[in-house]
Model the fold of this input.
Amino acid sequence: MEYTPKILAFAGSTRIESFSKKLIKIAVSGARAAGAEAGQGLSENAKKFKELMLAHEAFSADGTLKDPKQHKAIEKLGADVAQILMKLNHR
Done:
């Protein structure tokens, strides 16, 4: 039986025109061309969660926290998680 990798791709950025989101589109296209099952985007529950966040005062229209210090902390957390995943992938 042939193995087909399943890949879920998502960007860490909340900006609509982020380079991460543009790169994800290219990566998904390349993964599909190589024979992988690749998907991107938000699930219905993730979309509902986003709508819930945007309905509250702490978030800007683009989904970022209005407090720049908190936003930077989340960006750092995302970078830390990405580093951990990369290390686990190389084991």
